[in-house]
Amino acid sequence: MAADARVLACVLMTLVLPLRAHKRLSSIQVFMQQPFGSWLRLNTAWNVLCVALSVLACRGWGIEMWQRGLRGMVALIGREGLRAVCALPYIRSVVRSEVAKELKSIEKSIHGEGDPTALLMLPREGLPCTRILERIQEANAAESAEYVGVAKKWAGIYHAPVGELVDLQNKVWGIYNCSNTLYEGVFPSVRKYEAELVSWAIHMLSGRSPACGLLTSGGTESVMLAALSYRELGRSRGITTPRILAANTCHPCIVKACHYFGMALTKIPVDESAGFALTAKRVRRYITGDVVCIYASAPTFPHGVVDHVSDLGNLATSKGIGLHVDNCLGGVLLSYMECMEDMKEPFDFQAWDFRVPGVSSISVDIHKYGNASKGVSVIAFRDPGLRRMTYVPVTDGCEGLYVTPTMQGARGGAVIAQAWATMLSFGHVGYAKFAAHVHQTHMLYQKVVSKVPGLYVLCKCHACIVPVGSKKYNIYAVASLLEEKGWNLATGQSPPCLTICIGERHDRIVDVFEQDLRAAVEFLDANPSHKPSGAAAARYG
Ligand SMILES: *Cc1c(COP(=O)(O)O)cnc(C)c1O
Ligand SMILES: *[C@@H]1O[C@H](CO)[C@@H](O)[C@H](O)[C@H]1NC(C)=O
Ligand SMILES: *[C@@H]1O[C@H](CO)[C@@H](O)[C@H](O)[C@H]1NC(C)=O
To answer: Of 49, 351, 475, 534, whose CB has the highest number of CB atoms within 10 Å?
Structure first.
């Protein structure tokens, strides 16, 4: 608002200039009596001032246009035009009824005809514990039958939730069922687990003192805290709306972070010829005065590609900006792939952790390939000054000084203790074996995909994800046919692909996958006009 007012004021001032000149010229005699030079000097100074102010005020618009590029501007104008058309009364009512219909059908696909047993109000009297437990067991039985044994229903559970480790996890969870990290004096053991987990993660990422970090509830919170620290850094440099540069393959959580924290985000299309990786060459053009951070992924969720972090690190260093590496998905896995015994040949992706001097922060999920239960991730910073930017100490309340790490206040200690126990039970050797196993399964799935006629692996995927493309079939139709067979997949766009994320259990069902995939394309050969349906039509989360 203030920026727009500034622009308006400057434009008005610039417009007034010719009027002034005209008035003066019309009374030219007056001027002739005065030394003409001084009028010119005055006017030039005024002119320069106005132009300078206008340039300054319009800088934001200029940056925005530069960031979007010609195509982006055309798209923006198109979008705004479409929005204006949709706002016309008749069209608006048509759009609304279509949207309502669509929402209803989505709701129906999620909830069916509604649940007659739903408890919409808390009962007056509490139920006996045994009855509650029965109900929970009954409700969970069907679900867990689907995701425990069968990896088709992958559901973001990266490990096999059975066996000794799960017993340990359950016991630890029970022991800490009643704990609160806010009261670290009462629960010093939880504080110790938390500090050690962070330290292990930093070590895994080749971080050295004074690198530090925070334990968060998940990748999204880790990325948010990173974004917050860069925003504060930008503001300390006088940038009102700091900007982050990311690839269009970035995880949606960075969009959410920029939205929450009032930051600008430019999504840069990745280079197909560079195997869908974000390259320094692409990013360079977008570096404007308001950029505080480049956001790279190791690897990306849609394609499993590690961005060119090492090159981006050089670029970030030379421009004096930060580089965040989203290692949420590949955390643990990438770190340990390098120490796999039978994988001595170098991986064909660039270094992506603190070994790259320009990397200033890394988010790494312990609850994905770390084998821990959901609710544990680490955000690591190279410089404690950056972490400090995420703290909000409050001293003007009734409580004296109040400051908590992360975005949370009170937190349970169970999930932390459990993650600590999990990592400890693996050790380096355990994780290296785990990484080797996932890597081999990853290769197996790639082989299967490339054997099926009409389908191909979209690009050189470095870890855990197999992106499947097709020049012959509608890939969303393939995805929805697989979904009908019980597979839980994600899909991506530009270019269209279906995405399989490899978990620990996928090796057991690779044959089933091949059968189902072949059946899907054979079905499409027989029914070429089959339309995609269901969630596979376009959804992740
Ligand atoms: C999973 C993931 C995230 C977000 O993590 P959550 O734990 O789901 O909040 C961020 N980035 C990538 C690449 C991911 O795969
Ligand atoms: C849950 O926590 C309480 C309090 O610490 C403890 O007494 C109890 O044994 C715990 N439950 C389990 C199953 O360990
Ligand atoms: C991950 O946890 C599961 C569940 O306990 C276990 O079976 C599996 O072996 C673990 N992964 C590795 C590599 O140990």
So the answer is: 475
pLDDT tens digit sequence for 402-457:
889 999 999 999 999 999 999 999 999 999 988 999 999 999 999 999 999 999 99
pLDDT in tens, 317-332: 999 999 999 999 999 9
Task: Give per-residue pLDDT as tens, 387-416.
Answer: 999 999 998 877 788 889 999 999 999 999
Q: How far apart are CA 73 and CA 141, in angstroms?
A: 52
Distance 226 CA to ligand 1 centre (A): 14
Angle at 415 between CA 410 and CA 418, to 5 degrees: 145
pTM: 0.83
Distance between CA atoms of residues 484 and 421, nearest Å: 38
- What is the Cα–Cα distance from 520 to 482, expressed in whole angstroms? 7
CA of 203 to the centre of ligand 3 (A): 22
Last residue of a domain, one of 86, 119, 150: 86
Give, using CA atoms, the residue closest to atom 8 of ligand 1: 219
Q: How far is the CA of 50 from the centre of ligand 3 (A)?
A: 68
State the burial class of residue 133 (Cβ atoms within 10 Å of its Cβ: 0-12, 13-18, 19+).
exposed
Q: Residue with the nearest Cα to atom 8 of ligand 2?
A: 175
Q: Where are the alpha helices (DSSP H) in 205-245?
A: 219-236
State whether the beta carbon of 177 lies less than 6 angstroms from ligand 2.
yes
Q: What is the residue range of 458's domain?
A: 436-537
Ligand 3, atom nearest to 163 Cα: 5
**C-alpha distances in angstroms, 151 versus 311, 369, 436?**
37, 15, 18
**What phi and psi values does residue 248 have, to the nearest 5 degrees?**
-70, -5
Count structural domains, the chain: 3
Which of the 8 DSSP states describes residue 405?
A: S
Tell me which of 86, 103, 134 is where a domain ends.
86
347 and 450 co-located in one domain: no
d(CA 22, CA 111): 72
Q: Does the Cβ of 327 fall within 6 Å of ligand 1?
A: no
In a domain, 164, yes or no: no
**What whole-number distance in Å separates Cα of residue 363 and Cα of residue 412?**
21
Residue 417 lies in a domain: yes
On whether both 420 and 495 belong to a single domain, the answer is no
| Ligand 2 centroid distance, CA of 405 (Å) | 26
| Ligand minimally distant from the alpha carbon of residue 190 | 2
